[in-house]
Sequence to fold (233 residues):
Amino acid sequence: MEEEKFMDSRLVLRYSIREALGLVGMAVALFWSAGKVLWWPAWGALAVMAAWTAATAVIIYRYNPQLLRERLGPRQGARGWDAAIVSSLGLVTLARYIVAGLDERYGWSGDFPSAAQIAALLVCALGYAVFTWATYSNAYFSQIVRIQSERGHAVVSGGPYRWVRHPAYAGAILYELAVSILLASWWSLAISALSAGLLVLRTALEDRFLMRELDAYSEYAGRVRYRLLPGVW
Fold:
C-alpha cells in the first residue's frame, strides 16, 4: 500500500510538472513575442488554460486516477497518423501564440473592439468547460488514439457524449477559433484555422478507427449521429 501511494505521488508530481511547463511555455511564447507582460488578453488566455489544467488534474486524480498512468505511461498502440497530427498541433499552437504576440507588438491587425475580445474570452472558457466535462464523463479519456483493452475499454454515452461523439474536440475547436479574437490578431486566426482543421481531421480518423476497433461503437454512432456539431456533422 505504501509503495502504491509512493508511485501515485510520483505520477502526480510528473503530471504537475509537465502541465506547469506547458503553461510556462505558452506564457513565454506570448509575452516574449509581444515584448511586454502588461497584456490582459494574454493573461485571459493563460487563465483559461490554467483553470482547465487544474480542473483536469482534479478530475483525473479524484475520479479517474487510472488515467494518470495512461497519460504518463509508454505510448503503446499509438497510430502513426495520430502522432503526426498531435505533433503538428503542438507546432501550430506555438506558432499561433508567437504570431499573436508579434501582432500585438507591431500592430499588424489594427484595433479590435474590446467587446469582441471579452466575448471571445467567454467562448474560450466555454470551449474548455465542454472539454473538461468530456474528461469527467469519460474514464478512457486518453491523449492518444488507441483501444485500452487492458482497462476494459467500452463506449461512453453519458454527459456531453449524449449529443456528439467527440465533444472534447468540439470544445477545443471553440477555443482555437476564439483565442485569436481574444488576442486581437487576424494573422493568428489564420493559424488557428489550421489547428481547427487538424482537429477535424483527427476527429474523422479517430471516429473511423473506433467504428472498426471498439465494440458497440457503431451501435452508439447509430444513436448519436453527429461527430462534432449537432445537425451539421
Remarks:
- Residues 1-7 have pLDDT under 50 and may be disordered.
- The chain has one domain: 2-223.
